[in-house]
Amino acid sequence: QDVTTDVVIIGSGGAGLAAAIEARDAGKEVIVVEMMNVVGGNTLRATGGLNAAGTSVQKALGIEDSAELHFEDTMKGGYYKNNEELVRILTSQAADGVEWLISLGADLSNVGRMGGSSQDRTHRPTGGAPVGPHIIQVLRENAQAKGIEIRLETKATEILVKDNKVVGIKVEEKDGKVYNIKADAVIIATGGFGANLELFAQLNPNLDGFGTTNHAGANGSGILMAQAIGAAVIDMEEIQTHPTVVPSNGYMITEAVRGNGAILINRNGERFVNELETRDVVSSAILAQEGKTAFLVFDNTVKESLSAIENYIRMGLTVEGNTIEELAANLGIDPAALSSTVEKYNEFVLTGVDEDFSRGDMPRALKEGSFYAIEVGPAVHHTMGGLLINSQAQVLDTEGKVIPGLYAAGEVTGGIHGANRLGGNALTDLIVFGRIAGKSAGNQ
Ligand code: ADP
C-alpha cells in the first residue's frame, strides 16, 4: 500500500532526526524510515561531544573561543582537503545548533577538549556523560511530540525519480512487504559505510581485514542508492581508522592506554611494534600477527593513571592476573615468554632506550599487580567521504547540478571533514547540516 507525505527521511540518526524536526517546524508532514529496530544509528555510539564555538555554555564558563578558530582547527585537522564553504557553515552555525538542542531540552553544560581543538569547545552532558544517547533521546522525544512518524525495520531500497525530479522512495519492511512512500522531498541521512567491510577494503586495500566500530546499519546503502540516480560522491577513499578496538563488540580503547605505558604483545608473548607509532603503522603491525589481533598489556600503575580503564574493567573487556605469568596463562600465552618480554621492556624503561622498537616515551615500568590485558585489533571508525552537497544540503549530480527534491546530511555526505575528522565535529556536522536539510526540504 503506497503512502504519500511531504518529506521522507531515510535514517533516524542525529542528522535524520534534526532534519525531521526542522521540516516539521516548517509545516510539513514528515515520515522517517529506519532499517534497524532502534532509533539512533551510529549517533547512539558517540561519546566525545559536540564542538561549537561561542555558545552560552562557553560564555558561562569563561571560555573564549570563536567560529574562526573552530574553522581553522577543522581545516588543519582535515589537512586542508575540506570544502571551505561547508566548513564555514559548520563552524558559524555550530553555536546556534547547541542553543537549539538546549531549547529542546538537552543538557550540554559540560565543556571539554578533544584532539586537534585549540580551545575547550566539546559540549556534553553534566559530568561528561555519553552525549550520543542523550541527544538521540531529546531529538526522538521532540520528533514524536511534534507528530513525526518513525517507521522502524523499514529499509529504503530505491530513490524514485520522475521527470528528472525525486518523487519518493521504495521501502521494504522486515516481513518483506514492499511499497512506495511518495514525497516532494527525500532527505538521505543514512550515515557512513564504516560497517561495510567489503566496500571500504575495495576503496582502500590497506584496510582489508579491518573490523569496525560502527553499528550494522552503517552499510553505505544511502550513497549507493543516490549514485544509482546520478549523484556525485567525494573523498570516498578518506576513511578514519583506529588501531585498538575490541574485536568482539567494536569498542574503541583510547590511545591514552598506550600513551600512559601499556605495551602491545602478540600470541607468542612478544612485542612487535613501537606502540606509539602512527595509527596506520600500528594497525598493519597488528594485522600481521597471528589471529590478526594483539593484546594491550599493562599493570596497576597504568590502570591508576587513567580513569577510562576502570570503565573497561567494569565492561568486562580486560583479562586479569596477579602476576605476569598468571595473566599469560589466562590469555593462553606462554608465561615464560611474556614474563621475559616484560622484564626486558622494564629494563628499557630504566635506561630510557627501547633497543627493540625505538619507542620514545616509556612513562612507567610494568611491575605492580594486578596485571591486565585487552584484546584489540584495527577497525574503521568514520568515513569522511560521501555524497556531494551544496550549502543548502542539496545533493549534486556528477555534472555539479542540483538533483531536484534530493537532500543529504550527516556522515552520508562528504567534503566537510576533508582527510580527517576532528573528534567532536561529527555531531556538529549532523546537527548543523541535518537542520539545513530539514529547512531546505521544508521550504522547497
Ligand atoms: P548520522 O550520524 O549521519 O545521523 P547515523 O549512523 O547516526 O548517521 O544514522 C543513520 C541511520 O540510517 C542508522 O540508524 C541506519 O540504520 C539508518 N539507515 C542506513 N541505511 C538505511 C536504509 N537504506 N534505509 C533505512 N535506514 C537506513
UniProtKB/TrEMBL annotation:
Keyword presence, Cell division: no
The keyword ATP-binding belongs to this UniProt entry's keyword annotation: no
Organism: Anaerobranca gottschalkii DSM 13577
UniProt name for this protein: Fumarate reductase flavoprotein subunit
Family: Belongs to the FAD-dependent oxidoreductase 2 family. FRD/SDH subfamily.
Gene Ontology terms, MF aspect: FMN binding; steroid dehydrogenase activity, acting on the CH-CH group of donors
PANTHER family given in the database record: FAD-DEPENDENT OXIDOREDUCTASE 2 FAD BINDING DOMAIN-CONTAINING PROTEIN, FUMARATE REDUCTASE
Coiled-coil region: none
CC cofactor: FAD
Domain (FAD-dependent oxidoreductase 2 FAD-binding): residue spans on this chain: 6-427
Top-level taxonomic group: Bacteria
Region (Disordered): 113-132
One Pfam family per UniProt: FAD_binding_2
Keywords: FAD, Flavoprotein, Oxidoreductase, Signal
